[in-house]
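User: Please predict structures.

Assistant: First:
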Amino acid sequence: MLFRYVIVINFLVLIILKCQAAKKEIFELPEVRKQFVNNIDFKKAEFNKDSHLYSQYFDTSVLTYSISWNEKGSVSSESLQKNEDVEIFIYQDGELSMKAKMKRHAFKPYYKEDIAESIEQTEDSIFYYLKSK
């Protein structure tokens, strides 16, 4: 009888672990980007001398969307801040390389997803979005 309980418990643990591994965070940034991408203007951007990046911010009553690019005009990051949650997309060599979610003022993300170089870019990438537009 005890053996049956052990099998059932092991089976439940296995199900829980598979469900946690399959769980992926849903990012709002790609949808929010659509509201602001046409308003991005290199001439209105702020230049940060320390990081050598241009940035532009778009604020509404509930969220802040920002985009940064280097002096060559290549996008380096996008971020979305909504309430206490922050989503960050990092780009390298014209491709999305990392997505992360974190709490405001936190040092580490609670969810991070690295994008492999060989993987085809999806609608999460601003470059994919601009190509399909």
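Second:
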Amino acid sequence: MFFWPQTVENRAAIRTALAALAAVLLSFKFHLETPFWSGMSVVVVSNLYTGNIIDKAMLRIIGTIAGAFLGFYVAGLVANSFLLYFLSCFSIVCIGSYYYSFSINGYAYLLGALCAFLIISQVTINPQNAFFVAIWRPVEIGIGVLVSAISAYFIFPNHLKDNITIQLHDIFTDFSTGIIQLLNMLREGNPDFDLLAQNNLKLKKKLRKAVELIGAMNHELGVTKAKTDQVRALLDLFYDVSRQLQYLILISPQHSDLTIVQSLSIEPVLNAIQSDLAQLQLAFSNQEMLLELKTEAAIAELEMHVKQIQKSDEGSLFYLNPKTNTDLGAQEPAFKSNFIYAFIHFLHQVNQSLLLMHSLLSHIPLGMTAKFQVLKTQERIRTDRDVIKRSIKAGFSVILALGFWMVTNWPGGLNGIISSLVISIRKNLFEMKNVSIHRLLGCILGGGIALFSLFLIKMNLYDFILIFFLSVWGFSYFMFKLPKYSYIGLQANIALIISLAQEGGPPVYLGPPLQRLGGIVIGIVASFIVANLLWRSDVWTMLNRYLNKLYLYMGQNLKQILLAPGNQKKLHDLANLFWTSRGLIESLADEPLSAKKQGMLVELRKRFDSLVMIQATMSHILGAVNREKVEEAAQLLGCDLFFYEKEVWTAFTQHDTASGLKLSAQLNELLSEIDKKKTFSKVSDSDLRGFLAYINALNQLVLRIH
């Protein structure tokens, strides 16, 4: 019976092994001097999905060719000057590392810098060899890239479009399940908001994973740009709903709040949301015509139900509409329940997102004006001091490894230089340590298998094919199955290929694996010397710096949200910075830490959680509050809204906790006195609710100033 691998990881591992073997055998056929570059290129660009392979393969070959031209040209300029030689190497590595940090084509920049450096390095080894390397290195890498791309389409292909579709179905299902959980918790009057927060975080991680994969979908056959844009828009809408749920979780309800929610008969609304999600999911799968959604009508019935109960003089609903009691002097200030406003706004925001999904899947264009402009993350990172410092450190690390190689004449010097670059581009010492350990372990595993095979048998071509295929298959499966340790599998594959794929056929020398091991040690030592002496970036310093950056950029966003007019708002996209900070915190939580460092981690986690809540509040203001209606209500009530907004922003940017607490007291006083205004009865119910929700959101912001 024909063997057909079932799991995505096994299919990708077999494909990688077959492609790497084919690339090496082709290099043998063409009698290339270093055939291992072809096999290495296959395993380096290997991925679970076709689109990702094509994307990385294109960047690798483009970067290699550009680097070869640049390297050969610069080699001719610096051939007679050691100073120019070192300066050119330093500059090329710095520039490549700099663009690698933020450019969408960063991998091409890094490969270009690496290839240029390898060619320039020939000046100190064999100057006459520079032209040969500039021509044949791209050829060797090109063979690997071409074989990898062909195999991605024709050997056990795993298509990104299928994976994204599955992920979107999971997201639809998870959100529907979350709605059921919320309904049950509110109905039972015992909500577990910690559980909701954990589930919401899991949903966000799934959304982020899908967003990261979607960019490579266009490289797959049969995928149109329109389809990619549709999927991206759906993911953005789910992100919006997730942010609104985050704010709802932030506002912990009191017992009286739960009593009110239970009396509102919210079950039909949540059931309608669940039904609409199921219908949208079916439409996404089958591209069928959509029926009219039910949520909007259910919310309208809920609003009518609220008014009917209030007219019947049931005072518990004064939280929603205090104007039902004409005796203002006797009225209790019970209507200032932030949770109730947040919950009603959440329902309306979910309905708005469902309507947008309906429009998207029905291919009905909606004329909407963007509320704000998002500043590209690349523009922010371009001038980031940490990125510039890290690029300079990468340059010095390579120069240090290069100097050690030139002084000692160590055979694995080039491997050391490559290792120093790969390690030094990491963001902090914690990442550098993990990469170094994984790189060393992978080299020992891959090189060890190659040396053990040579020790046992006198390898012919058939032995080589069998050992090569099985080993690459095993390491690739390990790499895909355990993403946390994937770098070990990658480095094991590289060490194995360097050891076995030698010029002319099966290996006869023991030098290559030992040289690579020595080179990795050189690279690790050089990288850590520079990292500890120049702008030391330990994980605690970097995490604290990330949190400070978040607070700074959120202050700038807050100014735009509160003070910038209309659609002129320009906001920083802080998603990557949030995820980077969260990743560091989660990584540190898994490490054995001393009591002192555990205390530091607890404090940093509290700061991060506070920033998450601030971001959720800002997203709520931006997405769920109609600022025009709020300003109209404020004018009718004689409230100087601009004064409070400016004070909130000033206290936030100055880290003025005392002023924040004072401002919170003023906002609470405003809420307690608002029903005594003469113009109070002129404000409509919905406008009043929006105004109160906005004031409570401002209060949430000032309470989290730190």
